[in-house]
Amino acid sequence: MAFMELYSTLETLLTTSAPTEKIALFRTFFDLYRRGEITRDATTSLIVFDYPSYRDHCTIIDPKEVPRRTKLNTPHGQILLLHAIAHIEYSAIDLALDAVYRFRDCGEEFENDWLVVADDEVRHFEMIEGLLKELGSFYGSFPVHDALFEASMRTLNLVERMAVVPRYLEANGLDATPQILRKLDSFRHDAMIQKIISALYVILEEEIDHVRKGDRWFEEGCKRSGLERSIYFEIIEKHYPMSFPRKVAINCDARRLAGFDTDELEKISFTKC
Asked: What residue ranges do the domains of the chain occupy?
């Protein structure tokens, strides 16, 4: 029986640039993982990565210089939107894998939660890149930013990682996706727009579960460290100053399902939930 070592495989996955190679390796690994055919050597040294895995596949630029997504009723506008979403989903694969790689004392429930998330993100990425290919494009055809990677490498303890990645960055996606869907609705007669809308609904529903997992492990991290849940706002202020409260409406229902309580929602947004 062939066994695969967990942490060395994760390190390989986190440094594999080409999407086809990364996804093929992940599928082989995850299949073995679900069959219990992996070993664990937690004594190996942790790496703080200097650059994201996609550096050799994509051109990385400042977030402010990334092409704006406009004219969604045109193929070019749709490609830009899909490319931006594909990059978020591809980055999210690494974010989930890095959590398992880095927080080795959290146990097998933690492992399983974030490897399932990684599997979801792989599926989301393939779904979105499939639409890109229908439009004659592919992931890597436009420059991208590395803000999500930078956020992960700035949050090297469990509480900060769970606060920043699932409970801030991914939770922001719960707010942003309905706004995108509203913009797309005007062009619903377009067959490609219909496909994009369907894909975004799948992603939105499953991202609620990802944020909920982050909420669970944020809570667990706080308990382990003797911290109050309210530390969340200090962490976000540290990494993203003046993010709260927001003047724009947030997705209260999705955030509640994902674990945010009423007090937190009131601090996040001026708009009452």
From this structure: 72-268
Q: Under 8 Å CB-to-CB from 12, ≥6 apart: which residues?
A: 25
CATH topology of domain 72-268: Ferritin (1.20.1260)
pLDDT digits (tens, 9 = 90+) for 262-272: 999 999 998 88
How does residue 1 score in pLDDT terms, banded at 50, 70 and 90? low
Reference 250, options 237, 236, 262, 238; nearest CA is 262
In the chain, what percentage of residues exceed pLDDT 90? 90
Q: DSSP string of 142-159?
A: S-B--HHHHHHHH--SHH
Q: Is 92 helix (H, G, I), strand (E, B) or coil?
A: helix
Write out the two tokens for 88.
């978020």
Task: Count H helices and E strands in the chain, helices first.
Answer: 11, 2
Task: Compute the average pLDDT of residues 112-125.
Answer: 98
**What's the rounded Cα separation, in Å, for the pair 92 and 117?**
9
What global pTM score does this model have?
0.96
Q: Tell me if 239 sits within 8 A of 164, measured CB to CB.
A: yes
